[in-house]
Design a protein that fits this description.
- With 361 residues, this protein is α/β, with parallel strands linked by helices.
- It has two domains: 117 residues, Aspartate Aminotransferase, domain 1 (Alpha-Beta Complex), CATH 3.90.1150.10; 223 residues, Aspartate Aminotransferase, domain 2, CATH 3.40.640.
- The chain contains twelve helices and 13 strands.
- Strand 6, helix 7 and strand 7 form a beta-alpha-beta unit.
- Helix 3 packs parallel to helix 9, helix 4 packs across helix 8 and helix 10 runs parallel beside helix 12.
- The longest helix is centred in the C-terminal third of the chain and has 23 residues.
- It binds pyridoxal-5'-phosphate.
- The site of pyridoxal-5'-phosphate has 13 residues, from helix 4.
Length: 361
């Protein structure tokens, strides 16, 4: 079997299928910060390993206060979960939409959960002609739509809504009784001058929830810590009523209390991502057969323009060198000319740049 569009987290599966050593894979598919766990988190866990003998705080008061300080949202509007994944499910099941719109191509979990609850789902396409930049005027919102879901910056396109645009969408949705869920898993990688985060809007409007994770920016997908922000008390109460107790474990709880204040880790991450993002634009910009879309995240969507090479072939060529990219062919509205890769450390990025030059030049 050969599958080229597996999720970036499926490293065991990839190692097995391609007969490679998992520890040798350079994972350009997972979108995880290459700096690894923040030193503050490592230290806190190492020094407090025995906390596993106790339960976490069932209401996560200190953790929610730490998230409030970090995001500027009110602690009483914050809910924590087992990764952003638990909250994506939680918000969808609390709203229980009969009809929803997902701005696509997008992360696949929204569709999976909406289909589980038998929701009628409209996939609204981002326009390739506009380089996937969304047009807020054209969103198909009317009285029949109960929920609008989007990701900003969006996985896989890297495009985004500004907070101002999201506020406009929230106003419009309010008139139609439509609840918005925006996934900001990648927002910390974006340029602060773009004002992308809708955290403050979610704090004031009652028809919008922001979902955020720590897996990508703080490089801890194994810890499973995510959070949601909404000014809608009823929705928060519904999620809390449905949710299992203690779904965030003690190590994630502790990590969350220290990571958001690790200024040097945050600064180092932004500097690395900005420098390497510029280098990718410059170096891959020289390859005529590739188009890189503008991104406000730590990954790039790429289109192959030569009319003959497919993303699957690129994947297979690169995996021979232990380089794992995401074949983006199976995202809605994309095809076999698209792939995605994320920014890793300088040396690994050099290997990817060289390997792509070898394929396309
Ligand atoms: C857009 C998006 N949202 C959510 C997730 C899941 O993140 P978490 O580990 O916080 O559950 C991912 C993982 O790839 C993602 O790309």
């Amino acid at each position: 079997m050969s599958r080229t569009n597996l999720h970036g987290g499926d490293l065991d599966e990839i190692a097995r299928i391609y007969g490679i050593d998992k520890s040798k894979i350079m994972n350009f598919s997972g979108n995880v910060n290459p700096l690894g766990l923040p030193p503050s988190v490592k230290k806190a866990i190492a020094e407090n390993v025995d906390i596993a003998t106790g339960y976490p705080d069932v209401s996560y008061t200190a953790l929610r206060a730490a998230i409030a300080d970090y995001t500027g949202a009110k602690a009483e509007h914050i809910i924590v979960g087992n990764g952003s994944t638990e909250l994506i499910t939680g918000f969808i099941k609390a709203v229980m939409p009969k009809k929803s719109v997902i701005i696509s191509p997008a992360y696949s979990e929204y569709l999976r959960i909406l289909e589980q609850i038998n929701c009628d789902v409209v996939l609204y396409p981002l326009d390739e002609e506009r380089d996937f930049v969304p047009d807020i005027e054209k969103l198909p919102i009317d009285d029949s739509v109960d929920m609008l879901v989007f990701c900003s910056p969006n996985n896989p396109t890297g495009t985004y809504f500004t907070a101002e645009e999201t506020a406009k969408i929230a106003e419009r949705c309010k008139k139609h009784g439509c609840f918005i869920m925006t996934d900001e898993t990648y927002v910390e990688f974006s340029d602060p001058s773009k004002h992308i985060s809708a955290a403050e809007i979610a704090d004031t409007y009652d028809n919008i929830a922001v979902v955020r994770g720590t897996s990508k920016f703080f490089a801890c997908p194994g810890l499973r810590l995510g959070y949601g922000i909404t000014g809608n008390r009823e929705i928060l109460d519904k999620i809390n009523a449905e949710k299992d107790l203690w779904s965030v474990n003690v190590y994630a709880e502790l990590a969350g209390k220290v990571m958001f204040t690790d200024r040097s880790f945050i600064k180092e991450t932004i500097e690395l991502i900005n420098a390497e993002r510029t280098r990718f634009y410059t170096e891959l910009g020289k390859i005529k057969a590739l188009k890189l879309y503008n991104t406000q995240s730590n990954f790039f969507l790429v289109k192959i323009l030569d009319g003959r090479t497919t993303s699957r072939e690129v994947f297979l060529e690169l995996i021979k060198k232990n380089i794992l990219i995401r074949d983006a062919e199976n995202f809605p509205f994309l095809d076999e000319t698209f792939f995605r890769f994320c920014i890793l450390g300088h040396d690994e990025n050099t290997l990817l740049i060289e390997a792509l030059k070898n394929i396309f030049e």
